[in-house]
């Protein structure tokens, strides 16, 4: 099952009974990144800065002073309802003088978050694994071209008496085809080791 995250930040504004709601979303890889985004976009002048994030199995949300369950949880539900991962959403509210009630708050916060995410550009999350490709010096060109061909990102390269070893990050789906191509290109001399194999 493919997972998606945001390709870029997004924002959406909604007014409900004179209360202004500004939803801002960003792709995040760690809880620290999520909270840094909150620090960046939270408006001290606003009545509330409510938020939620989901990163893999980890999630957190905050009602920031709104009645419990009326803001953070609906924002999280909007993220999950659109099947997104690695996303932080902050909905800032400026109170307009008319109380919305619990149901109105849920609809306003959840609705602003959902519309913000609905219009946001998305990208597929590609699971990767660390790998080490090794071969004799005569195959150095093959190692570099295979890494590029299979969408690998070189992290480091080291030379030893046995030849060259490239430390890289590759898409999990490319590990087996890369191993086969490496074997063919080096007439069985090349080696591929995955972090999971160590």
CATH class of the largest domain: Alpha Beta
Per DSSP E runs of 2 or more residues, the count of β-strands stands at: 11
Average per-residue pLDDT, rounded, comes to 88
Uncertain stretches of 5 or more adjacent residues: none
CA-to-CA gap between the ends? 27 Å
State the shape.
Answer: rod-shaped
Strand order of the largest sheet: 2-3-6-4-5
Oligomer: single chain
Supply the number of structural domains. Answer: 2
What's the architecture of the largest domain in CATH terms? Answer: 2-Layer Sandwich
Secondary structure: helix percent: 25-40%
Strand content: 35-45%
Rg from alpha-carbon coordinates: 23 Å
Helical region count?
A: 5
CATH fold-level label of the largest domain: Ribosomal Protein S5, domain 2
- The H-and-E topology, N to C, reads as EEEHEEHEHEEHEEHE
The largest β sheet comes out as: 5 strands, antiparallel
User: What structural category arises from helix and sheet content?
Assistant: alpha+beta
């Amino acid at each position: 099952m493919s997972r998606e995250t945001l390709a870029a930040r997004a924002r959406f504004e909604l007014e409900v009974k004179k209360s202004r709601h500004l939803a801002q979303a960003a792709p995040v890889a760690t809880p620290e990144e999520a909270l840094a985004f909150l620090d960046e976009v939270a408006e001290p002048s606003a009545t509330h800065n409510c938020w939620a994030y989901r990163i893999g199995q980890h999630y957190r949300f905050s009602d920031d002073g709104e009645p419990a369950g009326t803001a953070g949880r609906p924002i999280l539900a909007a993220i999950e309802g659109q099947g997104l991962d690695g996303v932080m959403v902050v909905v800032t509210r400026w109170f307009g003088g008319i109380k919305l009630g619990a149901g109105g708050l849920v609809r306003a916060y959840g609705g602003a978050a959902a519309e913000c995410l609905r219009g946001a550009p998305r990208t597929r999350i590609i699971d990767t694994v660390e790998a080490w490709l090794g071969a004799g010096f005569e195959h150095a060109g093959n190692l570099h071209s295979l890494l590029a061909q299979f969408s690998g990102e070189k992290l480091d390269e080291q030379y030893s008496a046995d030849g060259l070893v490239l430390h890289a990050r590759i898409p999990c789906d490319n590990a087996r085809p890369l191993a086969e191509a490496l074997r063919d290109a080096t007439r069985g001399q090349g080696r591929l080791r995955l972090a999971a194999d160590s």
